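Class prep. Protein, please:
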Amino acid sequence: MKKEIIVLKFGGNTLADQDKILNAVKIIKSKYDEGFLPVIVVSANGNMTDVLLETACSLSKNPDKRELDMLVSTGERISMALLSIALKDAGLPAISLTGSQIGLTTTAEHSGADIVGLANDRLKSEIAKNNMPIIAGFQGIGEHKEITTLKRGGSDLSAVFLAKELGASCVEMIKDVEGVFEKDPKKDETARKLNEVCFDKMQKMCENGANVLHGAAIKLAKENNIPIKIIYYKTGEMGTIIK
């Protein structure tokens, strides 16, 4: 029986070590056991991207952007491979795929490209075989098969774009926060968690500095009426829905 597709996006802090990766496996397996076919988008684990950028900047005051894309795109590849290994060990049919392997085409800019489309059927082919794709977010392929990366936080955009392309009913963003708060809970302990937020309000919150989601991802979700659920990684429970 054909499974319903659901897109899950794991933030880097939810994959930062062995225990967190195994916790991600539990969340994914629960969705699979409920009858869904999860399509997973991952960020680089922990502070990997920052470490890579710091290393590059220690070697050059102005690192070449093409080479930076080659460098930082490895962070998501590490996440997808480790998670896929753990999922296969749990008996799930996972397969790791880079942005270029699924044909996620972008504009030619390095370190800030925009998504153009999907250039091949690799992703849909794997899904048709009931394989569970584990996809490196934040990256794609530009002109002349050049590796490109999106703007910072672009894994959120990757997830919403793939949900649109695959006809998924929603995107679940698994994060290390319990949901969207009206204020920064780290600065104000009285900040109230919002159970539901409309796209426009979430967009304004992002413009005012909230970094729960990538602003471009919210815009694309609104244009295609794709709800986004913020899921707390420790419990697997929804904290906020954006719709």
Notes: Residues 41 and 159 are 6 Å apart (CA to CA). The first helix runs from residue 18 to 33. Helices lie at 18-33, 48-59, 65-89, 122-128, 154-166, 199-207, 215-223. The mean pLDDT is 95.
